[in-house]
Specification:
Number of helices: 2
Helix content: under 10%
Bound molecules: calcium ion
Shape: globular
Largest sheet: 14 strands, mixed
Length: 258
Amino acid sequence: MALPVHPKMALSCATVAPLSAARVAAIAVTVDLAASGPSGQTGTATGDTSVGTDRFFGGVTSVRGSGFDDSLSGSNNAANTAEQFNGGAGNDTIDGRGGFDRVQYSSFVDDTTTGGVTVSLAAGTATGDASVGTDTLRSVEAVRGSNFADIYDARNFTASGTNAGSAGVNANGAAFNEFEGMSGNDTIVGNGNTRISYQNATGGVTVNLSSPDASQTYLTLTQTGITTGDSSVGTDRIYRSSSRTSKRSPLSATPTTR
Ligand SMILES: [Ca+2]
Ligand SMILES: [Ca+2]
Ligand SMILES: [Ca+2]
């Protein structure tokens, strides 16, 4: 026989952690991973009575927002670490602050992203269907896409501008960034310091950064490279601005450990 759950207990369980609370929040949440306070507090999460005011004391590096318009802010995390943000539905504002910060649109656990996402990294915008909304990105350097066909455009992504990268720049001033397309046939435009990632693929991938195909276009760009893999990857096409004079690949081959 199932034991009755006291309403107070149910509410308490739902408000223990900002990560789980966000799933049941009735209104947007504001999470700040750098809201220091008494007794060593390192961050806070606030919302309506479905969330309360949660304080945490270190060790929080990932945030899952509510289905509403959330405000999620990171900290100045150290080199070779990453902070991760999953805004969910709603028009979210995500500010990674310093360090390497990733927004996620993948359906890793029980997320419900139902369509592809279009990311303009320099402009700091990520748009999708109602399961994604229109998100504002600030100091965000990495995107984990949806399991659908995403568009990732990192052209003109530098250490200054609307969405400024804070994980280093190369000699041309292009800020380091990363895109992991997950499933779906994704479209990728690098900035000359872009890493493409397949770390969650369920099989090997074949990447050819020099595979031009004039029949494949994105806006005014033609394909310069391609990745193929199993259903966890799809066929991802890589493009480079036709106005570029450099023969450099738009994608970085420099291994890093972020
Ligand atoms: Ca949200
Ligand atoms: Ca950060
Ligand atoms: Ca994808």
